[in-house]
Amino acid sequence: MTDIFGIPLQALFGQAMIGLVNGSFYAMLSLGLAVIFGLLNIINFAHGALYMTGAFVAWMLLNYLGLGYWWALLLSPIAVGVFGMVIEKTMLRHLYKLDHLYGLLLTFGLALILEGGFVNAYGVSGSPYQIPSALAGGFNLGFMFLPKYRAWVVAASVVVCLATWFVIERTRLGSYLRAGTENPALTQALGINVPRMVTLTYGVGVALAGLAGVLAAPVYQVQPLMGSNLIIVVFAVVVIGGMGSILGSIVTGLALGLIEGLTKVVYPEASSTVVFVIMAIVLLLRPAGLFGREK
Amino acid sequence: MKRRLLSALLVATIGVSAVVAQAQVSGDVVKIGVLTDMTGVYGDLGGQGSVVAAQMAIDDFGGKVLGKPIQLISADHQNKADLAASKAREWFDRENVDMITDLLNSAVALAVSGVGKDKNKVVMVVGAASSALTNASCNANTVHYAYDTYALANIAGKEIVKGGGDTWFFITADYAFGAALEKDTSDVVKANGGKVLGSVKHPLSTTDYSSYLLQAQASKAKIIGLANAGGDTVNSIKSASEFGITKSGQNLAALLVFITDIHSLGLETTQGLMVTEGWYWDLNDETRKFADRFLAKHKARPTMNQAGVYSSVLTYLRAVQAAGTDDAQPVMAKMRALPINDVFAKGGKIREDGRMVHEMYLMQVKKPSESKRPWDYYNLKATIPGDQAFQPLAKSTCALVKK
């Protein structure tokens, strides 16, 4: 059998596959962040908490209403999106004219309140959420055992990411959005309701976080602090990809998942640090990020 | 002659001061502080449940000791050693607290134990794991109550190898606790004729464990030892079930896992897991009765840790009663002298290094079909007598142990 750096090729394939799965979570979360930052200029620190909320809503739907995974996949992002729009309408709206920092502080505070509320209501250990029976089991790929559910996560997130990118970059609605960001006053003058569009954008951005939460629920434990573990890495992804770049966040998310996965074989102790090392290097060489434009 | 006179004088002075001390309960109240993790990762293991358990102990004792009222206060240590130490100082100096219990985190426990020594107050560590508390960092004011890393490693290592699990691969949290637990367990595994095939270290609070599990799977070891804790263990177990590790013939041994973890993971995921516990609510009629009373107040079954807090408060109050004072050293002497017989321990004994020695249990998590009601999670696999479970006194590096 062939080795690369003394690691059997088989193990390397397995780890790359797993890296891709994690990468697709990163991609989906950072996509939402990138949309919100790119179009609204808000650094949304509540993203991790809203991802957690998405997972919890799925759990509640199952335990209180008896609605399973597929319903949750539809209803939970809607619930999180509506919640996000309420936040935008009542709170964030007042901060657009101020420095980025105020939006960051507000959303960070919201994240703490959400997490605290869930800890208080459900405890810190969280609750299990079973993999839907249609996706239980797995494929034996020869070099590894790939659970069906993980394959589904990769497929679902790639589809969602590409669809989002398509809508924003290639459709009329997307062009309105981009115009609204470039020059809100002029866009408004052309008869487009910019404030409503901004509200909807924020709603869609956080709905993506909610969707990622539902996808994550069966893989990780549904627990109040699940978002805060992930959010820092996701922010690093956004920074590396280039703040606000949609395509950048998708590609970087997948790539970093892959790199992280391979680090876990070569030097596992560094697997949580490697993302930040890359971030530091990228910031030094290309301050606007890999796909970002200098302003 | 002169020397004899001097020593007679000395004895007399000590005697007098002892008599003076005997009449005393400081501040006319015996005050107990529960310092615990209210909101963090160990919140379910201790938290408000520990406060409930401590109050139950005070109520069961009658609410008064030596004719003085017993008071209970509590605070959140947030798993921060500096915060816990300053809280302990505040309690001892200004709030007149006589004893602090629970302390759910080794760093926190070591810090507060040091404060207790400086202020000469009693510290009863229940929830923390580090065996340093009764070795290099031991002192005459600290009792370590429920379990420790030595016992966890010793029991899991010995019993599992005996049961045929003789090849191991470790998934270890990359910090002092994980490394110590892996080393201790490896030593026991090897001493009992087993082999360690390899290990992998992961950073603290990793979210995804599948790649480490894949490496463990490739090692073909019969047992995958999880030398981590809390959320890390929970996520490792969950991934192992998803990747079909346990179904393919390898077994998981979580070296530090609690009933609250099993509860939150569910039996579907955890079935077959080997667990070491210092106490279980469904052991016998007495523990079940206690658990029912606890359930009525707290809406969950008590954990080993919460039962340990109950027992530590009861043990402390009995010692205060017997010593006739709440002064730390006489109370410590009585605690060492009196055997502990309550719902938590039978024939428990506190040694001079501060270790409370009692029976430990090796449990296996039930299949979902075997579980008859909520919190019915364990099958008892082995009962390990205290002197075989814990580190022998001869091996202790505690300075208080006379050799």
Question: What do these coordinates show?
Answer:
- The complex is a heterodimer of chains A (295) and B (403).
- The mean pLDDT of chain A is 87.
- Chain A is built from eleven helices and four strands.
- In chain A, a hairpin with a 4-residue loop joins strand 3 and strand 4 (145-147).
- Chain A has helices spanning 9-40, 47-65, 69-90, 100-122, 148-170, 172-182, 184-189, 194-216, 226-241, 246-266, 274-285; strands at residues 3-4, 7-8, 138-140, 145-147.
- The radius of gyration of chain A is 19 Å and the shape is globular.
- Helix content of chain A is 71%, strand content 3%.
- Chain A is mainly α.
- In chain A, the strands form two sheets. Chain A has a two-stranded antiparallel ribbon. In chain A, strands 3-4 form a two-stranded antiparallel sheet.
- The longest helix of chain A has 32 residues, at 9-40.
- Chain B is α/β, with parallel strands linked by helices.
- Helix content of chain B is 43%, strand content 18%.
- Chain B contains 14 helices and 15 strands.
- Chain B has helices spanning 2-22, 47-61, 81-93, 106-119, 149-162, 176-191, 210-218, 230-242, 259-265, 267-270, 285-298, 304-323, 328-337, 386-389; strands at residues 30-36, 64-65, 68-76, 99-102, 122-125, 142-144, 167-173, 195-202, 223-227, 251-254, 274-277, 349-350, 356-357, 360-365, 378-384.
- In chain B, the strands form four sheets. Chain B has a six-stranded mixed beta sheet, with helices on both faces. A four-stranded parallel beta sheet of chain B has the order 8-7-9-10, with helices on both faces. In chain B, strands 11-14-15 form a three-stranded antiparallel beta sheet.
- In chain B, helix 3 packs parallel to helix 4 and helix 5 runs parallel beside helix 6.
- The relative contact order of chain B is 0.13.
- The model of chain B is unreliable at 15-23 (pLDDT under 50).
- Chain A binds chain B through residues 8, 11, 14-15, 18-19, 21-22, 116, 119, 123-128, 130-131, 138, 144-145, 147, 149-150, 219-221, 223, 225-226, 229-230, 261, 264-265, 268-273, and chain B through 39-44, 174, 200-203, 205-208, 210-212, 214-215, 218, 231, 234-235, 238-239, 242-244, 248, 260-261, 263-266, 268-269.
